[in-house]
Amino acid sequence: MNLSETVFVLPPQNPTHTANLRIFTPGRELPFAGHPTVGTAIALAERAHANHGGDIDLVSVLDERVGPVRCAVRLRQQKASFAEFDLPRKSQQIVLPLDKADIANALSLKITEVGFENHVPSIWSAGVPFLLVPVHDVGAAERLEFDLQLWEKMVPFVDGALASAFVYCRGAVNHTAKFHARMFPVGMGIVEDPATGAAVAALSGAIHRFDQLPDGHHPIIIEQGVEMGRPSFIHLHIDIDGGEIANARIGGQAVRVATGILEI
């Protein structure tokens, strides 16, 4: 479909679930993806309740290759609908050797611009692995130039595929966001992604690890896609109990931009 991701909606095998999803980029199928989950949950809810005149709150369960994903959907009149889901897997760090100089070179940045505070490059996965690259500030994130060939030469294989780059920093263009991010996929057939829920899911583990979040509830907004002219705001909620992540949720808004019929 020449979009970042295309979702094919199939009947669920479990009759108590809402649907079975298969998610594809132009390059390959994904076991899990965040904003396709948000968009599909909202699209299915709006279709099922098209004749309802008021606000609606509902829960759906979408089966993805990573497992069932539980989504809470809020349909609102005259406003963009919102959906959030519990992470199907907690973010786990994958410890592999990484060269900071090689990472900086692949991003066309100085080595001193890679990392901030306690944050260092690391690989994390909540279903899809990403090499998370902290950079000094928003200026560095805006200025970087991603070199795919250099990246492919130095990035490690994780689960049989090269890890994509998720670059992030503290601070943001929009004052409501706490982090600014960019995502450069490898092997997916796209140059840059405006919103990557699976990467933010992975980021939840890094934020907890490097920021040492105290027990309690931590709401965090990550902005992404600004440099593309397609700004998105990804809502991440992390619950810490006993020094560990007890639960994490990701959410965002989605609106319908086109409707059509394909004849195959």
Automatic annotation (TrEMBL):
It holds the Pfam family PhzC-PhzF. The active site is at E5. InterPro entries: Phenazine_PhzF-like. GO terms for molecular function: isomerase activity. GO terms for cellular component: cytoplasm. It comes from the Bacteria. PANTHER family: ANTISENSE-ENHANCING SEQUENCE 1 (PTHR13774:SF32), PHENAZINE BIOSYNTHESIS PROTEIN (PTHR13774). NCBIfam families: PhzF_family. Belongs to the PhzF family. This is Phenazine antibiotic biosynthesis protein. It comes from Rhizobium rhizogenes (strain K84 / ATCC BAA-868) (Agrobacterium radiobacter).
